[in-house]
Amino acid sequence: MPTLPAYAPPSDETELLLKWIRRARESQMSHYDMADLLSARERRLGWLVTVLTAFVGTAVFVSLSVPPASIEMRIFVGLVSVTAAISAALQTFLRYAERAEKHRAAGARYGAVRRRLEAVFAGDADARDGHYLSSIRTELDRLAEDSPNVPPRVFYRTQRMLFMDRPHRRDV
What we know:
Layout: H1 13-65, H2 71-94, H3 96-121, H4 132-146, H5 152-163
Helix pairs in contact: 1-2, 1-3, 1-5, 3-4
């Protein structure tokens, strides 16, 4: 497994811009990856809740029209009912969809800053005002404060993928 290069402070403005571009890209991609992970968890939990509640509803309906079920069947349906209730409560408590949207928004904001940095690096005169470095730094600082945390596991996985130069579908 390749190791990440050691940190060295930038020695000039060009190197500073390149470091900021790299960090903005890593942050953008890791927030998008986290959003995808949370969305997948939301879907899986949603499917589980849907299937379990459909089963319990059907079992209760069937129990009204047929002779009483065995004690084992009633216990099984009761356990599935409790599992469905716990799963629904977890779905509400964990707020996967809301958290995914926050990460998507953070990824989009990092992407906007990254594009601005790339325009500055490319020499776009419109992107370079008198205080462009301090305004970009302020924007990056605000983003870092306002964005939800990405777990290190996700961030380092994203870094490794970017370091290995694997194409990323959101790398625009």
